[in-house]
Model the fold of this input.
Amino acid sequence: MDFSKFLAEDFDVKEWINAAFRAGPKDAGKADGHAATLVMKLQLFIQEVNHAVEETSHQALQNMPRVLRDVEALKQEASFLKEQMILVKEDIEKFEEDTSQSMQVLVEIDQVKSRMQLAAESLQEADKWSTLSADIEETFKTQDVAVISAKLAGMQTSLVMLAGTPDYSEKCVCLEALKNRLEALASPQIVAAFTSQSVDQSRVFVKVFTEIDRMPQLLAYYYKCHKAQLLAAWQELCHSDLPLERQLTGLYDALLGAWHTQIQWATQVFKNPHEVVTVLLIQTLGDLTPSVPVCLSSGVERAGPELELSKLLEFFAATAHFAKGLETALLSHSHEPNLVKVTELVDAVYGPYTPYQLRYGELETQNLLIQISVVPLERGEAMACVQELSHSVNKLFGLASAAVDRCVTFTDGLGTCGLLAALKSLFAKYASDFTSTLQSIRAKCKLDDIPPNSLFQEDWTAFQNSIRIIATCGELLRQCGDFQQQLASRILSTAGKYLCDSYSPRSLGGFQDSVLTDKKASAKNPWQEHNYLQKESPAEYASLMETLYTLKKKGPSNNSLLSASRATLTRLNQQAHQLAFDSVFLRIKQQLLFIPKMEIGQHIMSLPLHLEPFVTQEDPALELALHAGKLPFPPEQGDDLPELDNMADSWLGSIARATMQTYCDAILQIPALTPHSTKQLATDIDYLINVMDALGLQPSRTLQNVGALLKTKPEDYRQTSKGLPRRLAATVAAMRSLDH
Done:
């Protein structure tokens, strides 16, 4: 039996018994015998345990006196150790008191020794200064730059040790004067060495000027020598007959060539060659005469408003190509660039364009308005105008897409706010011209000049043209939706890099954090992170960040960048719907009271045949426009609207309701009716109602009410008019000369 389980913390009596019986014989008749055996074994085990406990207790009692004696002895030893520790502590405190005075004396002696050594060194250096200053004139007579510089370096070292002497400032002036003499003596040789690109001589001068702490002055000679060559090349280009973009290309080629040439040479001479050559380019760009900003201004002015932006882009393309070449050249060397100087170089290259980039929205607006003004919308007959309107859609969005490309190229997406304003102006101008063309088409179709007594003639040409205009509006709406999504994606892919993940438009702190993050990001590659807008126009930059944040949050497919322009195009679609409606209904309206109603009814009965081919064409743009537009004279509240599923039925219903409304208005203008004319008018109304029923349309309540009031006998009029509009009942009663 396994008695070890009795020691387990989770011991379970039932589980142990069941396990013991499972391990016994399987025969049910032997279960009692197995149980008796288990009980006997347990009793024996209990006896063994009791015996073991008794023996252990007996041994513990026997050992207890000895344990007590050991504890007492340990206690006495601990008390003795405590007394010894107290005595040691007292001895240490006494030793410190006895020796503290001696230690203080030793410290003071050491200080005196140090001061004496310093004084001795100062006297030696003073004597050395005196010796060197006495010999310096003789040394200058040798004209040996290396020997002179060694003497001056020694005097400079001595002067450091004499910093506290009374005549220190006079010695400094004297040393600077000697350095100036050396520099004047060496300047012709320095210029010759830098001009001839002599590595050995240049290294000597670098060593000399480093020793006398005059390296900036040596670099000034270097910059002056090589800058003069580049400035002369620019002067030659400016006096040539080349256009400005070619002049800029020539300048940039010279600068890039100078970079590669000077890097190879400067690497052998200077400790920080890349920084030295970077500063050379910065100074050259800053000292150009005439300067690049002046040249850009005159070039843009000569181009005129029509070509101002395109010329700027030509100039900028040459500059961007040069910048890309410099960036590649910098990255091709495995060195850690001086990011401050590289950023200055980036600003020197792109800086001339910053005023124009800040005005990008204004320039783009001017450019787009000039270009859209030459897109013809009105030409000759109405059909020609309709065709021009159709052709103008692709031209419009071609101009818009080109503007996006210019924004990305010229501002790297930072001009997005200006771009959106320019696009808004573009669509507004186009919509204005479109509206004027619609008015012209309306006049050419003579919709507002129908003679009152002219013969009723069916002419579906105007309606056909109007449907084509509606299809054009649908294409405008479709392309506007696609363009808006493409615009959002393009903005995020270019300017999105300026938006940090922690930006939040709800707090100024979030904006400041984004600014700091952007500055850290710009330290990685100043060529790719040139951000003129953040420094020059913080308000526009904040607006851009909010736009980017909204786009990133909602996604490109759910944005409202062109919501105002889309609303403008939707209004154009509504105007086209009104034109189409008027082209059908105005003739009916004009002739409604001058021809037999039978003819009007027949015309309305024929409308489905004419409407169906136009409004059920398989044209996605037309379908989009028809669903986006709203027809006049909508169904009355509570009417069944079966025609909403079919655009032809919607048009038919609108024209029919307009006919009924106009007819009712005309009837109610009649001053008086004879019994015969009352009966004839009621018959005409019944006929019109039957026409509506035949077309599956619901007659208007007003028409039904007028018909009912006209057919009612005089004696029943008061009873019939109950429940009907009081004003309508009173008007009809006055027409029939009845008391009401």
Summary: Residues 156 and 175 are 7 Å apart (CA to CA). The two ends are 119 Å apart (CA to CA). The first helix runs from residue 13 to 23.
